[in-house]
Design a protein that fits this description.
It contains eight helices and eleven strands. The chain has 260 residues and is of the alpha/beta class. It has one domain: Vaccinia Virus protein VP39 (Rossmann fold, 3-Layer(aba) Sandwich). Strands 3-2-1-4-5-11-10 form a seven-stranded mixed β-sheet. Strands 6-7 form a two-stranded antiparallel sheet. Helix 4 links the parallel strand 1 and strand 2. Helix 2 runs parallel beside helix 5. The chain is globular, with a radius of gyration of 19 Å. It starts with a helix and ends with a strand. Bound molecules: S-adenosylmethionine.
Length: 260
């Protein structure tokens, strides 16, 4: 269990991590470019001419993808350094308005504009928020009635801080087999802990595990239904590190969800 101070101070941790994360991710790392962005693209569909909110945008790399396809984008993050880096990376021909905002502040979120957005995206950030009700509740109101909300999270069943990656060498009738899996003892109970999203980041950040039912039930309470769902995984790579998800093509490290 983390102390209350850290739980309430997650944005300060992200502010201290923002420069390192931006230097590492740039316009997208493997995880983003091969798994998260393609699945989010598929669930979002056409974005040209639409007004889209990117919540918890980090360095804004996906906001720039959307804007380069003709969307008008509003993008916010809780860490001022992420927003500064995002602005530096954005060419003037892209229609993106960046702002610093707290995704757990319902009243502030509503100021972005009721019924304004055709779509809202929130990539790989819900598990970093101590509370997700305000974002779900506000997003329902920020969206036009026909709008969609596409979010992604670390897969709670296979990719949370308490999962252990297993690598086994098995002799089966004289044939040696390597097996790569994931084991867990915790899934249903919500908990908070510290974790590293990027290897060797300067300090860990707080993470808030919720089972899929915990995430979906909060979305349902906000008036959403789920109408799109992907569990992307990496194709098998023989040369990948034994602890990489590329050795576990049957195990999706993320889930990507569309709500309406
Ligand atoms: C794992 S990063 C993902 C960033 C980006 N969406 C991406 O896919 O690269 C999580 C992001 O959530 C942001 N964040 C954490 N707590 C926040 C809060 N309370 N309000 C707004 N943003 C927050 C962090 O600053 C960070 O940019």
């Amino acid at each position: 269990m983390m102390d209350d101070k850290l739980m309430n101070d997650t944005r300060s941790v992200w502010e201290r991590l923002a420069a390192f994360w931006d230097d590492s991710l740039k316009e997208g790392n493997d995880f983003q470019k091969r798994l998260i962005m393609p699945a989010t693209d598929r669930l979002l569909g056409v974005v040209q001419g639409q007004t889209i909110l990117d919540a918890c945008c980090g360095n804004g790399n996906y906001a720039r993808v959307l804007a380069s396809r003709g969307a008008t984008v509003v993008a916010f993050d809780g860490a001022p350094t992420f927003i500064e880096r995002a602005r530096q990376r954005t060419s003037p021909d892209l229609s993106i308005t960046y702002t610093v905002m707290d995704a757990t502040d319902h009243a502030a979120l509503l100021e972005l504009g009721i019924n304004r957005f055709d779509a809202v995206v929130c990539s790989m950030a819900l598990m970093d928020l101590p509370t997700i009700e305000p974002l779900f509740q506000a997003t329902r109101k920020l969206l036009k009635p026909t709008g969609r909300f596409v979010f992604s999270v670390c897969h709670p069943a296979f990719n949370s801080p308490r999962h252990i990656h297993t690598a086994e060498l098995i002799s089966d009738n004289g044939k040696t087999q390597q097996r790569f899996g994931v084991k867990t003892e915790y899934y249903l109970t919500e908990y908070e802990t510290l974790s590293e999203g990027l290897l060797h980041q300067p300090e860990p950040h707080p993470i808030f595990h919720r089972p899929i039912s915990g995430i979906f039930n909060r979305a349902f309470e906000a008036g959403f239904v789920v109408d799109g769902f992907e569990e992307p995984s990496f194709p098998y790579e023989k040369s990948a590190n034994a602890f990489s998800f590329a050795k576990r093509p049957e195990i999706p490290p993320a889930l990507v969800v569309r709500l309406r």
